[in-house]
């Protein structure tokens, strides 16, 4: 990625948008060139173990992004497993079923650990937003691109604020209710506003026009 950016003369600063295993590469990029990163959107990342544990903990401890905006999106990785459990539960009815009891305990424990890993990433920045989309599985980018676009817009808008007189340092949390879009401004309108920023030179091409 570093070679591609350099060879194609795509100058910084960059907003890094990563999904799943791509989070490892985004974190390694952040480690090598933190001064070139203007913000991050991490989509269903955090369960990877490829990143050096020392690097991971150092980035958390130092809050490597400082006040730069960070959005962490968590889907429902176990959504298919939960559906299977509900179907089996309906078939079993009121009859005692130790297997289903154990299955639910495992699902609850796994879900809790997944949430812990996602929330841990918020330590990268003191200006962060946590977004939970319970009706979507791991493929958030494919199934809920609107949520990803909204997160990218928030990072872009927040970066614009930082470049001005006021800098916001805050944590925000959002739990989506179904797939309803509650954004007051349209994504297209917000991108038009964000394009005024020198920061977004190339990223808007990825989001559509």
Automatic annotation (TrEMBL):
<dbReference type="Pfam" id="PF00561">
    <property type="entry name" value="Abhydrolase_1"/>
</dbReference>
<feature type="region of interest" description="Disordered">
    <location>
        <begin position="160"/>
        <end position="182"/>
    </location>
</feature>
<dbReference type="InterPro" id="IPR000073">
    <property type="entry name" value="AB_hydrolase_1"/>
</dbReference>
<feature type="domain" description="AB hydrolase-1">
    <location>
        <begin position="5"/>
        <end position="67"/>
    </location>
</feature>
<protein>
    <recommendedName>
        <fullName>AB hydrolase-1 domain-containing protein</fullName>
    </recommendedName>
</protein>
<dbReference type="InterPro" id="IPR029058">
    <property type="entry name" value="AB_hydrolase_fold"/>
</dbReference>
């Amino acid at each position: 990625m570093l070679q591609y950016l350099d060879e194609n003369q795509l100058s910084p600063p960059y907003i890094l948008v990563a999904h799943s295993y791509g989070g490892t590469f985004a974190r390694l990029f952040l480690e090598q060139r933190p001064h070139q990163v203007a913000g991050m959107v991490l989509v269903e990342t955090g369960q990877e173990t490829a990143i050096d544990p020392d690097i991971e903990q150092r980035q958390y401890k130092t809050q490597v992004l400082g006040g730069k905006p960070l959005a962490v999106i968590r889907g429902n990785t176990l959504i298919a497993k939960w559906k299977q459990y509900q179907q089996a539960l309906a078939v079993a009815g009121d009859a005692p079923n130790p297997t289903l009891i154990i299955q639910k305990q495992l699902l609850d424990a796994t879900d809790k650990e997944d949430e812990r890993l996602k929330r841990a990433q918020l330590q990268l920045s003191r200006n962060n937003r946590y977004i939970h989309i319970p009706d979507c599985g791991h493929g958030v980018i494919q199934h809920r691109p609107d949520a990803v676009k909204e997160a990218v817009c928030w990072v872009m808008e927040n970066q614009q604020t930082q470049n001005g007189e006021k800098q916001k340092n805050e944590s925000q949390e959002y739990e989506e209710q179904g797939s309803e879009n509650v954004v007051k401004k349209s994504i297209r309108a917000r991108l038009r506003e964000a394009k005024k920023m020198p920061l977004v030179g190339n990223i808007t091409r990825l989001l559509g026009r």
